[in-house]
Amino acid sequence: MSEGVQILLVEDDSEKRCAAVRALARTGRAVIEAATGADALAVLRRGGDFVVLLALALPDMDGRDLLARITADHPDTPAVIVTGVDDVAVAIDAMQRGAWDYVVARADGSHLIHLSHVVARTLERLQLVRDRNRYREEVEALAIALRGTTDGVVILDPVGRIAFVNRALAQAWRQPESAIVGRHLGDFVSMHGSQVDLGDVLAAIGARGRWSGELSTRAVEAPERVWDVTLTPIRCPEPAPGGLLGHARTAVGIFRDVSEKHALEQLRADFLSMITHDIKVPLTVILGYTEMLTDPEPPPDQIPPDILTRIRESGETIHALVCNFLDLSRIEAGRMTLDRRPFDLAAMLAHAVEHYSSTARRKGVGLALETGPLPPLVADEPQLQRVVANLLGNAIKYTETGGRVTVSTARENGLVTVAFRDTGRGIPADEIPRLFEKYRRVREVKRTEGTGLGLFIAKTIVEAHGGDIRVDSTPGVGSTFTVLLPGAS
Fold this sequence. Notes:
about 500 residues, alpha/beta, 13 helices, 18 strands
């Protein structure tokens, strides 16, 4: 960095300047001469990288005043006083004003022999100062980045204590940074799903280098979370006595919260178990009744009168489960498309109510359609049929014998609304915000078949049409799911 540094020699005595220039020739650096303080400031204003050698006695200003100007206007430019004044008080004053060095000029010129060494020493110091400033800027920038990143970051000392924690991780652990720094990492996290001790991991980092794995939150104050963690050793001087990090003096840990990923994986596992059960039940009904029908001599008193209806309904249940699963696959792959065409919404609802009437009748649930004149709706009719089937099927499923399900339509602020009102079990208020999530289903003591995908798919389809689904529910009274769709323009 110091290769291009020039020497600015400020001395009004021409003989002394010439002698100094000859002495400085051995530095191999260009020497710019200035006879006054004003000339020196003009050279510095033009720009460049300089070491300034200046006398205290100048014709236009005191050298100490020039030194103060250089320190204020060009703080990165080192200045060395070269003067015949051999006074400790003057030297101290010059150093306090910003001088980097002080050379006493001798009448016999002996000081000139050492002048090149003074310049070399000043350049070495300049390099160190610039390196220090650069490192400080890099550290400050890194600290800002670490504190601002959404990933958690810790820096560990040789025995696994936390020397630094960023704001994101401190907030996740619900602790102030000051309460975390100085404590052992094991106070806050432990190995996830493993019998390996965290101390063994820390001890192996120095020998094996970087470690990646999952850690679980241990702190009582923090919610249970799972972190994908990478621990990397940094700095490798002499090993610390008793250090867990082997030959690594410190290590940096990057924490990424994967709790949602684990929760989703658990939901997927539950879903697979659920769909296996929910397909098995109606399939058992179909196979059982089919075996009964194919028996050459079936006992007449064991054949239900509505056997074909039950077989059909069981087949429709399996069909709905498979369709939901295929719809989910299309949605997750981003392949769901809409084929918008005008169609008669009232006729589509009437057909759906008629289709589900036998299911409602067999369960002892009243089913009614209340609709008035509606404009043609421009939408994807088959997709909206899936919405109606899911919402109407749910309403009947969750309504007990003797209850009632009503489908009604209306116009509201330029929207067409379709409401599915039931007198079923209702939904707890704390369940409603998560009702439309994938694989979610209202928790209940009495299990009802279904994957929990229907509402997610219905909402996705409705929102793709620019609409929304609204839910109002009172436990023990019933629920109303209202579909809002843009009306025909």
